[in-house]
Amino acid sequence: MRRRTEGPRLGRSRPDRRDHKAAKVIGALPADRVEPTKMIQSVQRALRIMELVGRHADGVSAPRIAFECGLNRATAYNLLRTLVYERYLRRDEAGRYSLGLEVSDRYSELTRAMAGPSTCGEYMRRMSSETGYSTFVARFVEGRPAVTDVIEGNRSPHVEDLIVGFDDGAHATALGKALLATLQPMDRARFLRSAGMRKFTGHTLTEPDEFEYDLAVYGESGVYAEMGQFKDGVGCAGVVVREGAAPDERIVFAVAMPLEDIRTSWPILTERLRSAADELQPLL
């Protein structure tokens, strides 16, 4: 029986014609494009998988990845498992693969190194574009936590209430929690008595004591979250970007995403939000 070999695309023995064409245009390129005599084939294969998955916004199946990358299925599955574990890929319930948060982090680092954002809005647009998640800014307006800026992402469920000017349900949103956490306990209790603790979903916290416990738990990391407490199937995480002596000087940044995403990417998400706070602080 003839043994199946893996496709030639992964270990080219000769330069691609496109490389020669580009070399004629960019004088410094030929030396950079000389193929090394020794390369790690598994790294090349992983990169080809990343390139293929990146071209499929709706995800792509493992068999198709194996076929298009010229890999046998065992090799493809081993590489896919590794990339998912390292969070460079994510696998949905249907078994389709799409790019993971680590990819957006590397891209973010590259863009920051080349040219940082000049405004908060620019930063929000960039982060929503990189991650696909909606981003929000909120602050106290006339004594109430209110959304002051929104950039929607294509991977976040649309939450029609979370628009600029929304100032309800602070106890059920990550934005509201982060802002209320900056208040003294007595001031926070006074606010909750006045505003009420409406039940938005079956997971909404409606008792002051459980709300205080929730703030204490998230306060240890500095990243506040709600898991389906404002809208079923949606999660949100927020961080204080700027504190101030007066409540109206305090600003919070948050992202919203499918509930499953926030559960599976919490460690990475908290790191990303802390970095966002550092980057946004001088822009606000």
Write the layout of secondary structure elements.
Elements (H helix, E strand, L loop, with lengths): L16 H9 L3 H4 L8 H14 L5 E2 H7 L4 H13 L3 E3 L4 E4 L1 H14 L5 H12 L2 E8 L2 E8 L22 H7 L4 H11 L12 H12 L3 E5 L6 E9 L8 E8 H6 L1 H15 L4
Annotation keywords:
2 domains, five-stranded antiparallel beta sheet, about 45% helix, alpha+beta, Beta-Lactamase, three-stranded antiparallel beta sheet, about 280 residues
What does this molecule look like?
The chain has two domains: 8-99, Orthogonal Bundle (Arc Repressor Mutant, subunit A); 104-283, GAF domain (Beta-Lactamase, 2-Layer Sandwich), CATH 3.30.450.40. The model is unreliable at 1-32 (pLDDT under 50). The longest helix has 15 residues, at 266-280. A five-stranded antiparallel sheet has the order 5-4-8-7-6, with helices on both faces. The protein has a three-stranded antiparallel sheet with strand order 1-3-2. Helices cover 44% and strands 17% of the residues. The chain has helices spanning 17-25, 29-32, 41-54, 62-68, 73-85, 101-114, 120-131, 174-180, 185-195, 208-219, 259-264, 266-280; strands at 60-61, 89-91, 96-99, 134-141, 144-151, 223-227, 234-242, 251-258. It is elongated and about 70 Å long. With 284 residues, it is α+β, with helices and mostly antiparallel strands. Helix 6 packs antiparallel against helix 7. The chain is built from twelve helices and eight strands.
